[in-house]
Amino acid sequence: MTLSVVLPALAVVTVAQFVIMSGVFFISGQLLPQTLAAVYAKFPDSFTRMIIASIVIMPGANWAIGFAYGHFPPGIVAPLVVVAMVMMNISFTMVHLGTRLTPALCMAILLLMASSAWAAWLLQAK
User: Fold this and answer.
1) What is the band of 26 on the pLDDT scale with cuts at 50, 70, 90?
2) 39: Cβ–Cβ under 8 A, 6 or more apart, which residues?
3) Secondary structure of the chain in the HEC alphabet?
4) Which band of pLDDT confidence, cut at 50, 70 and 90, is reported for residue 126?
5) Which terminus of the chain, N or C, has less C-beta within 10 A?
6) How far apart are CA 58 and CA 65, in angstroms?
7) Could you give the angle at the alpha carbon of 6 between the alpha carbons of 80 and 119, nearest 5°?
8) Inter-residue contact 13 to 64 (CB < 8 Å)
9) Taking a C-beta distance cutoff of 8 angstroms, is the pair 20, 10 a contact?
10) Are 16 and 65 a contacting pair, CB within 8 Å?
11) Interatomic CA distance for residues 119 and 26, integer angstroms
12) Closest CA to 22 of 10, 9, 35
């Protein structure tokens, strides 16, 4: 497992998870609330916004995840998807709540990355 494989794969899955989280926050009406206020007023229910996100936003994320699994070893991509998912969830939540990064949260993130690296190593072991 080299950085020349891990970094591009991490970039692809991070973009995919960013798009997914953007879709989730769009569905809940919390993605750029001032900028998208007219859209949220026109489509006030989350079901309609879910249909819109499923057609407009989510296909790009699905393509990116499929691309990652098709071009990089699945044993590396799977743990990276978990890391990217948690990182995007934490990032979007911190922005939404206006909280700051704490040392305890940094330690939790480092433990997540270490456990994902261990899982990737175990998946590659023969």
Assistant:
1) very high
2) none
3) CCHHHHHHHHHHHHHHHHHHHHHHHHHCCCCCCCCCHHHHHHCCCHHHHHHHHHHHCHHHHHHHHHHHHHHCCHHHHHHHHHHHHHHHHHHHHHHHHCCCCCHHHHHHHHHHHHHHHHHHHHHHCC
4) low
5) C
6) 11
7) 45
8) yes
9) no
10) yes
11) 32
12) 35
Q: pTM (2 decimals)?
A: 0.86
| Alpha-carbon separation of residue 119 from 26, 75, 116 (angstroms) | 32, 8, 5
Give pLDDT, residue 40.
Answer: 96
**pLDDT above 80: residue 91:** yes
Token representation of residue 21: 């989280």
